[in-house]
Write a structure and sequence with these properties.
Helix content: 25-40%
Strand order of the largest sheet: 7-2-6-8-9-11-10-15-16-14-13-12
Structural class: alpha+beta
């Protein structure tokens, strides 16, 4: 059996050994405590046409409350003290030295050969965190204006969406958006939760606040549905990368969603933009993600430009690790290339790697993440079928000829059987 020894990210102060009973004596997010609790509530207007009236959600509420939790000592280290620099070169990769992120961690077994796995209540999940780690609930309001309540009772018939701190943050303002926390959903994209993430990005109304999603097998460390988000006031390299438009047949373009693919970037990926509404855009990308997870292909998603631009990256780094196809030099850095690294924010754990960080290193690492050109085009064909978007025949034949891809093939499993990762 192939194994990879990795170390998990600690995302909560209440992350304990799975076999130890946690009880409910600490005001947690479980069914024992949450339904009778009151939490701050931000109610947004579920209307893609709206223009946010202020920066209250991000600056006053999210970042303000995040700093308040930092003052209370709820984080495991001070991420604002981590050294950060832009790596010299054309791409503008950002490197951060975060030595605290791999300390005090507990080894756990985590399979990477299955993107979809059932929720396991015995393992760490977000119902076990304390309510002091929660900043606010994020729910669709019933009126025509967004509003905030400092204390709001929960509807016992509704599982709340919560925004909580990540106690092992990568960057300033690092939070977790946890849809319908009491439903105990596994790490699996669905249209409803993805639209929630887009509304969250749109409501913050700041291009430097991005959301990310990692599937299982693509370095998600917790099998409980969640998105990550943080604030970084520089462009991500992938946001500046060149793209090539994929022409769509007229009927497939009615929703006005535009699709392009990255070029001259180390990780192959698709870019989704436009749409007649936020829901149109969200439905297309959610269907693409559902296609990937149903076909056992790990992937990462970066939600950029306040929800108006979405990057989708099928990836294979864990598979290459299991097959011993990644160089020891890259493995020694202990960098797990998830959504932030793929976007160009390299979180490094050793001072040596930080001091020697170069654009060449970033390209070599991320090139190992990427599917081959042939595999990428094959996967794209299935994504387009699942989303109802159809390339123009001329463009499809041109791409197939250039890549050698076959659009008649069937989707093969992406991982060898028996592959186990110790995360």
């Amino acid at each position: 059996m192939l194994t990879i020894k990795r170390v998990p990210t600690v995302v909560s102060n209440y992350q304990e050994d799975a076999g130890e009973p946690l009880g409910c004596g600490r005001n947690c997010l479980g069914k024992c405590c949450l339904p009778v609790s009151k939490l701050p509530l931000y109610a947004y207007v579920a209307d893609a046409e709206k223009e946010p009236s202020s920066d209250f959600l991000l600056n006053s509420l999210l970042l303000g409350q995040w700093e308040e939790r930092m003052g209370r000592g709820l984080f495991r280290y001070d991420v604002t003290a981590c050294e950060t620099k832009v790596i010299p070169g054309d791409s503008g990769f950002v490197a951060q030295l975060n030595e605290g992120r791999h300390l005090k961690k507990r080894p756990t077994e985590f399979r990477v050969d299955r993107v979809l796995q059932p929720f396991d209540p015995a393992k760490f999940n977000f119902t076990k965190i304390g309510q002091e780690e929660v900043l606010f609930r994020f729910e669709a309001g019933r009126g025509d204006k967004a509003y905030f309540s400092e204390s709001s009772s929960l509807d016992r018939n509704i599982s709340p969406n919560v925004v909580a701190i990540n106690v092992s943050p990568i960057e300033y303002g690092h939070v977790l958006l946890i849809p319908r926390v009491l439903d105990c959903l596994p790490q699996r994209i669905d249209a409803q939760s993805f639209l929630l993430a887009l509304n969250f990005a749109a409501e913050t109304a700041n291009p430097y606040f991005r959301l990310g999603y990692n599937s299982l097998g693509a370095f998600a460390t917790i099998n409980h549905l969640h998105f990550q988000a943080y604030y970084l006031s520089v462009p991500f390299p992938v946001e500046k990368a060149q793209t090539q438009n994929i022409p769509l047949v007229e009927d497939a373009a009615k929703s006005s969603v535009r699709v392009s693919k990255l070029i001259n970037y180390p990780v192959r990926g698709l870019v989704f933009e436009g749409g007649n509404s936020l829901k149109d855009l969200g439905d297309v990308v959610a269907n693409a993600c559902i296609c990937l997870q149903d076909n056992n292909i790990p992937f990462n998603v970066l939600i950029s430009d306040s929800g108006r631009r979405i990057f989708l990256f099928p990836q294979c780094y864990a598979e290459k690790q299991a097959l011993h196809e990644v160089s020891q030099e890259l493995l020694d850095t202990q960098v797990n290339p998830a959504v932030w690294e793929i976007g160009g924010h390299m979180v490094l754990k050793r001072k040596k790697d930080y001091e020697e960080a170069s654009e060449d290193y970033a390209w070599r690492l991320l090139a190992e993440v990427s599917l081959s050109e042939e595999r990428f085009e094959e996967v794209n064909a299935y994504i387009f079928e699942a989303t109802g978007l159809v390339e123009t025949e001329v463009d499809k034949k041109k791409d197939a000829k250039e890549s050698g891809a076959s659009y008649e093939s069937t989707m093969a499993p992406h991982f060898p059987e028996g592959c186990l990762v110790l995360q």
